[in-house]
Amino acid sequence: MKSIFKIYLAVAVLAVSAAACGTLENNAEPEVLKDGKHVSKMVFRGSVAGYEGATVRDNSTKSESSWTDGDVVYIAFHNGTAIVPGTAVYSESDGWMVSFEGDLVEGESQICEVRFFVNPTFANENLVSINSNTEIYEDVNGSFDFGNGTISVTASMTPKTGRIRFTGAADDAIHVVGITTYSTFSPAGNQFTTTHTSIPLTVGATGSTPYVYGYFTDAECKISIVGSDFAYTRTCSSSIFHTGDSGYMKIPSPSSHMNWKTGLIITVNDVDFKMLPVAGYSGGFFLLAETETTNAQYRAVMTNSNVTPSSYPLTAYFNSNGGVVNCAFFVYSLNNETSLSFYIPTKEEWQFAASGGSISQGYTYAGSNIPGDVAWYSANSDAKTHEVKMLSPNELGFYDMSGNVAEWTSTRGSLTSNSGNYYTYNYYVCGGDYSNSQPTILTSRQVDERSTASESKNGLRLALRFN
């Protein structure tokens, strides 16, 4: 008959020789800690197989152990549908000690999950905080035996993720977008959380960055690299991030980027957002959306919206005084979705990009001296908006910065009061819209919000920075 191992019962357990794991002696009882958890010696036959055939830890078949003093493994004992979380710590003098809270059923070859972390940010029995350089090894089909007061665990752990590093010149600093990494592990809940924020990396003296441990964020396996004055994206083979595999990738540059497309491309609910680099601006490097925010992009983020997806620029929520608020909420929602830092561009950033940035040809409009080449305006629009990217872009690759819809921008100003300094944002629309005449669609023209917000057909072009 099976019996239940209760928290406050005194049960005989095994003693483990430091020289040879596996010697069982039923002459000890589990100590009950102040927080009500059992602590017991444990026989552990466990190995950790690393990347590229390396052995990280092993004592699966021999008495000598490659585990080191203070190593910790997290064990999820399966008790029917319930999980009993345990934390086991290795000591060179005493072997393995495991603490756990819950009931264990007597029996052999019961299922347990065993995990081992290398380089976590923080770890204790309640939480493991993980970063992009943390190695995660696990065996979700480990086994344990419990009977006569003894606990014996067997596990063969392997990598949970793939890993990749980037090569380049020493001290090159980049941000990588498109890799999902794990962020926390909860022993009590036996659950991981993930993040897909940008990953800052610096090339070391050996010519490569540290390894990043994770997997591709989207099904198309897109990865983007943003440097100090460039941004590139490519679609990769999923084999780069097969679980347990290692890979490397050369950092693209303006002189060498054969398989890379210019710009940062992220995908939200199967809709792409393409951000192009703007270098040479006095306020620092930033990225700006290739097009005005479209109906499809808005709907991808605001999934409950009644907007019908299309490649037309969105005006329904951006074309009145309340449009500024709606812009801000859309940006906030996009940032929550992507873990990036999008924002409404300043009018100075907008004008710099619209005029062609550091490679400006001095055009009157955004990309040409002839308005009809680049702009939908009163003379050619038929009094309506048009799909984005139907006309020519400007020198930097931006479409519709003159005409189509006017675009919200902002400038932060400071106000001084008796109680301290405060900041206020002044909002402007730039570029003119489809109903405006030629003078209003000049790249140098901005219009104060308060005088035009009720009558303009306004949209939004996203900006992005990496700090």
What is the beta-strand fraction? 35-45%
Low-confidence stretches: 1-29, 449-454
Overall pLDDT metric? 87
Q: State the oligomer.
A: single chain
Q: What shape does the CA trace take?
A: elongated
Number of strands: 32
Overall helicity: under 10%
Strand count, sense and barrel status of the largest sheet are:
7 strands, mixed, barrel
CA-atom Rg in angstroms: 29 Å
State the distance separating the first and last CA atoms: 63 Å
Number of helices: 5
Which structural class fits the helix and strand makeup?
mainly beta
The neighbouring-strand order within the major sheet is 3-7-6-5-9-12-13
Short summary:
This protein is mainly beta and 467 residues long. It has five helices and 32 strands. The N terminus is likely disordered.
Give the arrangement of secondary structure elements.
Elements: E1 4-5, E2 31-32, E3 38-49, E4 55-58, E5 72-79, E6 82-91, E7 95-100, E8 104-105, E9 107-118, E10 122-123, E11 128-129, E12 135-147, E13 150-159, E14 162-167, E15 173-177, E16 179-186, E17 191-195, E18 199-202, E19 212-216, E20 222-226, E21 231-235, E22 246-250, E23 261-262, E24 264-268, E25 271-278, E26 286-289, H1 295-301, H2 323-338, E27 342-343, H3 347-354, H4 371-374, E28 406-417, E29 420-430, E30 446-448, H5 449-452, E31 458-459, E32 463-464
Parallel strand pairs: 3-13, 14-22, 28-31
Antiparallel strand pairs: 1-8, 2-3, 3-4, 3-7, 5-6, 5-9, 6-7, 9-12, 10-11, 11-16, 12-13, 14-19, 15-18, 15-20, 16-17, 16-19, 20-21, 21-23, 24-25, 25-26, 26-32, 27-32, 28-29, 29-30
